[in-house]
Structures are given as structure tokens and as C-alpha cells.
Write a structure and sequence with these properties.
This protein has about 130 residues and is mostly helical. It is about 80% helix and about 0% strand. The chain is flat, with a radius of gyration of 18 Å.
Length: about 130
């Protein structure tokens, strides 16, 4: 029970931190004023927490209603999610720390994401022989 509570709390804290960083990074672009950093960070935290709450509230019902899936079929989605995570971190690095390095990291994440999509399609539509 205690580890479950800590895991849920950690998920909300990590999502809130990423939401705050994403909100702050939006104000670093030329479109918005840096004075709006706190407001955008607060909005990012709110959006992230609402997203995690919705995902946690419906995930149990979705898992029960789906047929069982082999873990190997989910390999492409895991690779895709890893690429998405790398691309998000690239965006944060590009807007908050160093533009050129962040763009390269984001491009790497996009490439990893497309590889994951390819793996997912190949494994998902492969016919089982034998």
C-alpha cells in the first residue's frame, strides 16, 4: 500500500515538474513574454495533473476490457514512447539551455519515434506462422 502511494505521488510530481518546465519553455520562444513564465508554468502543471488523473482513472477499465496482448507486440510502442520522451527533453534543452544541442536531441527523438512506429507496424501486422 505504501509503495503504491509513493509511486502514485511520484507520478504526479514528475508530471507536474515536466508540465511546469514545458510551460516555462513556451515563454522562452519569441511569441510570448518572459514575464508570463509563472502563469504558463502554473498552467502546465494544471494540464499535466489533469492528464495524469484522467489516465489513471480510466486505465483500469480499459485494461480489463481488452484482450491479452503479448509483450513482444508492444515493443514498437515502447520504442516510440522512448523517442517521444527524448524529443520532449530535446525541446526543453533547446528552449531553456542550448538551442543547437536541443535541436539535435529532439531530432534524435523523432527518428527513434519513427523507428518505433515501424517496429510496431511490422510486429502488429505480422502473420503468425506455426
Amino acid at each position: 500500500m505504501k509503495t503504491r502511494l509513493v509511486r502514485n505521488l511520484a507520478m504526479y510530481v514528475i508530471a507536474g515538474a515536466y508540465g511546469a518546465l514545458m510551460g516555462l519553455s513556451i515563454t522562452r520562444t519569441k511569441t510570448f513574454s518572459p514575464d508570463q513564465g509563472f502563469l504558463f508554468s502554473l498552467a502546465g502543471v494544471g494540464i499535466a495533473l489533469i492528464g495524469v488523473f484522467i489516465a489513471k482513472s480510466i486505465s483500469g477499465r480499459i485494461v480489463v476490457s481488452l484482450p491479452p496482448i503479448k509483450p513482444r507486440q508492444l515493443l514498437g510502442l515502447k520504442i516510440f514512447f522512448s523517442g517521444f520522451f527524448v524529443a520532449i527533453n530535446g525541446w526543453l534543452v533547446a528552449t531553456l539551455i542550448h538551442t543547437d544541442a536541443g535541436i539535435r536531441i529532439a531530432m534524435l527523438g523523432i527518428v527513434i519515434g519513427f523507428v518505433g512506429m515501424g517496429v510496431h507496424f511490422v510486429l502488429g501486422f505480422k502473420r503468425n506462422h506455426g
